Amino acid sequence: MQNTNINQQVQQIKTYEPQQLLNALYWIWDVFDRCNVPFFLVNQTAKDVIAQRDLTGNKIEVGIKQTEWISGGRRLLDAFATPLSETEDSATYQFEGIPVILHVYKPSECIEQTDMVRYRYEQFKVPNPYSKFVEIYG
Q: What string of DSSP letters covers 38-105?
């Protein structure tokens, strides 16, 4: 039992190379694209993309509207990837050992219309305005 807790703590503080994180971001982008389910970037992932800098940290974080999630998005995503863990408002997937956390958000004006940001070779959506998103969701 104690080893499990230690392993979880190490996983939480481990950081990945920017290219590893970018590969995980492209993977989840591809999954959503194949499912034709809209999503947006959040938290550190969004901050790095907006600032046009290398991805940092120990995970990739994306968001989806609750309505998209419950109206079929979840079933479609599960056909392409199996979540490692789930709660009512998130699901954690994994790509080559990197956690990809999908957050499910209740309606808000800042996620109804998103901004497109070109990052590396693709375009990604981010909440609009992002400052309002941070104010509402933390």
A: --EE-HHHHHHHHTT----SS-EEEEEEHHHIIIIIHHHHHHH---SEEETTEEEEEETTEEEEEEEE
Tell the CATH topology of 2-137.
Beta Polymerase; domain 2 (3.30.460)
Rounded distance, CA 103 to CA 89, Å?
A: 6
Give per-residue pLDDT as tens, 45-93. 999 999 999 999 999 999 999 999 999 888 888 888 888 999 989 999 9
Structure tokens given for 123: 């375009």
Q: Which residues make Cβ contacts (< 8 Å) with residue 65, sequence separation at least 6?
A: 38, 104, 105, 107, 111
SS3 120: coil
> What is the pTM (predicted TM-score) of this model?
0.87
Name the nearest CA neighbour of 96 among 1, 46, 28.
28
First to last CA, the chain: 32
